[in-house]
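Sanity check

After download, print the first record. It should look like this:
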Amino acid sequence: MEAEAAAEEVPLLAENGEEEEEEDYEEVKSLREVSNVFWKETVKLWRIAGPIVCTIVCNYAVNSLTNIFVGHIGELELSAVTISLCVIGTFSFGFMLGMGSALETLCGQAFGAGQVKMLGIYMQRSWLILTVSCFALLPFYIFAAPILRILGQADEVADMAGYFSILVIPQLFSLAINFPTQKFLQAQSKVSALAWIGFVTLIVHIGLLWLFITYFKWGIVGAALAFDISSWILVIAQVLYVIGWCSEGWSGFSWLAFKDLWGFVKLSLASAVMLCLEVWYFMCLIIVTGHLNNAVIAVDSLSICMNLNGWEAMLFIGINAAVSVRVSNELGMGRPLRAKYSVYSTVFQSLLFGIFFAVLILITKDYFAVIFTNSKDVQQAVSQLAYLLGITMLLNSVQPVISGVAIGGGWQDQVAYINLGCYYIFGLPLGMCLGYAANLGVVGVWGGMICGTAAQTLLLVIILYRTNWNKEVEETTERMRKWGGQDLNDKAADDSI
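Expected structure tokens:
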């Protein structure tokens, strides 16, 4: 009965994603109040998180299925495509996602503050900035082969990975439109369309992989072609939905998109640094492993573990996006306790998910590698790494959620320093010492880097516990005054073209 009563108190979302006006929570003082608030926040979270998780899982499946299809061509092809996607692709993905995440802060808080018309302008600014960023990243694709050789990859693997990287340059440019459009829609809780677009794109991608690799036998060329086509189908569908069905936040192209670009770039760079230091961390794990003896087996086994870890991470990245929307919206509306309790509820649920996935991996450690490879040596190597994979999954259940809170609250610069210290000053050097000096191989490298993740998670939990949510509301109000005051909001309608 309590659950039903709490559910009735949850405001229904209107078609445009807006909530009915509500008062802020009071401080909870009893178990009953805790359970009521937890239930209400759970319902609100999963109304947003469910479709976002579906979207992100479908998007990630495009990468994962590309690896699976290529893995059945041969071990060299699997290593090359994995290196390309995990090093070059992840490098650019992390940077572009980080640049686009500035939009998550601004759009979420602007929507909460009622400045809906500014969302389309923010998105257009982000399109411009991310497109320019793509050109800055082009040399990493064009010169991927020599870069990978400098990083210590075997010549045959580096050459094939470099060739594949050049073939997927069109996919890079799709990210410049993809990420801002997603953030625009997420801030308004218009996430169901994203889920459907992602699902249809995944089905199309599977068909293209089968056609180009299995039927036409085009090898990694077919894999790259399917990857490019699917990425742009996704982007075009998202933009058409924004133009056709998002009249509240989209009022047409505007010259205001060119206003205050430098300030927007600085906020985007702060977001990029924070997320890049996270995303690139496990890219470094693949690179360092490529220097070990029998590198092909080491990289293949680790790539399979990272692939599965990525599947789990997609769930938590979806929750990350949802809690970012919840926090930014509530701060924009001036409701600090709703922001606070939404965070606590989300962290608790994510921890339960992490425990479940860790146990599942340990139970199936001798079997799951067969999905990715026919090699008995690789399967055995994967089984030996399963314990580290389970620990990583447990840690990754909490860390992305708190990162989402950081994005929703605009703490990117603070978290960037924590990531730099824990990951690159502590975790990565420790992993290299254990892997090479202590001769523990990939287990040592990964184990040391897990210590860095654990340290980062602990510090973020401490910061979260000490957060003054009333102060966060004040800073949000100041940010909205700076980035989208009423005068600018009025100009948005006048300057639309």
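If your output differs, re-run the checksum step. Summary of this record's structure: The two ends are 53 Å apart (CA to CA).
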